[in-house]
Amino acid sequence: MPASAPPPRVFLHVDMDAFYAAVEQRDHPEYRGKPVVVGAPPDQRGVVSTASYEARTFGIHSAMPSREAGQRCPHAVFLPPDMPRYEMVSAQVFAIFDRYTPYVEGLSIDEAFLDVTGSRRLYGPGEEIARRIKADVLSELALTCSVGVAPNKFLAKLGSEYRKPDGLTVLPFDKKSIVAFLRPLPVTRLWGVGKVTRQAFDRAGLHFIGDVQDAPLPLLQTVVGPHNAAHLQALAFGEDPRDIELDVREKTISREHTFLHDEKSRGTLDQILFELVEDVARRLRADGRLATGGRLKVRWKDFETFTRQRPFPRPTRIEEDLHALAQALFRDVVLEQPVRLIGFGVAGLTERDGARQLDLFDLPVESRAKKENLARAVDRIRATHGPGAIRRARNLPRRDSGA
């Protein structure tokens, strides 16, 4: 007898609804029902990180300049991001995911793919697992999420976007129904079709996913290239062989600051850089890995941008190491014109491994451990009492205010 076909895979894509803004509205009842914008103030340079659904009715969206958001909705509540709090809530959300499957691929702080194929014997079909997760998130965290249930990751993500907010969409699992579901959708719903690819499709008269399904492969190859043509046509038929990636982590950790007015004071720039490095160091400690290099970013008044980078003598997450490298990089910068933006980041993140032995040539291992433990204690105090509860004293060399 021929072997029976294996049961279909079941994937969920869970996306928290307006996550940062929702956390603020949950924790501040006076903001509920009001348009909330998390990001830069409307009178400063910067962009929107997240907008509540009340704010979205005014056309406000992520990455929009905050000044434009303020013009669209002058009575909106603008709040600065509180990343330690959002990260804490995110950990609680992911702990709920872990109850239902060990196969969780975090895409960002507020969304993830889950493979629940093997969980159905315990918790029921994919739709039931999705309902359980939504109920747990609501009852335990007073937040909502939208979930797509599908036979692969691409379709699951389409499903989570289908009925936001607080949505649950189960996509078809049979080939014929999947193709029919996809046909009327715009080509921009295909994963990887951005502005440039959409324009290429528009010029070729391919506006809907059904058009991509019907197009001869040679035609698609002339439009988007051989590799992209095969990939996008496979997606157009609902085919996505990708599995859950269990170790998807940031390759870099960085922070930037855009000034309200172009800044030419080296003392002010030093202070802002100091604060950026503090935050990068905190996030690096929370990540648990070590950085092998650091990078300084400066954008001048005329928008020209340059970066300077340098490796650390050894992999590190010691805050003093990050400060020393940032200071050394910035010390070499000649302030030819006022600065619009300054940033600092670390890269080459690595696990604790044999490279750690290099610590023997610098501080003793015990001294580095004490520094890390002290820094983590400061992190906990700031998480509880706010970022201003404890401030590290700057120890910077004296410099002139100019170049």
Account of the 3D structure:
The protein has 403 residues and is of the alpha+beta class. The protein has three domains: 13-171, 2-Layer Sandwich (Alpha-Beta Plaits), CATH 3.30.70; 187-236, no CATH class; 252-385, 2-Layer Sandwich (Dna Ligase, domain 1), CATH 3.30.1490.100. Helix content is 41%, strand content 20%. It contains 15 helices and twelve strands. It has helices at 19-27, 53-56, 66-72, 83-100, 120-123, 126-141, 153-162, 175-182, 195-203, 209-214, 217-224, 226-236, 266-287, 319-331, 365-385, and strands at residues 11-16, 36-39, 48-51, 77-79, 104-108, 111-115, 145-150, 168-170, 252-263, 291-300, 305-316, 339-347. The strands form three sheets. A five-stranded mixed sheet has the order 5-6-1-7-8. Strands 9-12-10-11 form a four-stranded antiparallel sheet, covered by helices on one side. Helix 7 links the parallel strand 7 and strand 8. Helix 4 (83-100) runs antiparallel to helix 6, helix 11 (217-224) packs across helix 12 and helix 13 (266-287) runs antiparallel to helix 14. The radius of gyration is 24 Å and the shape is globular.
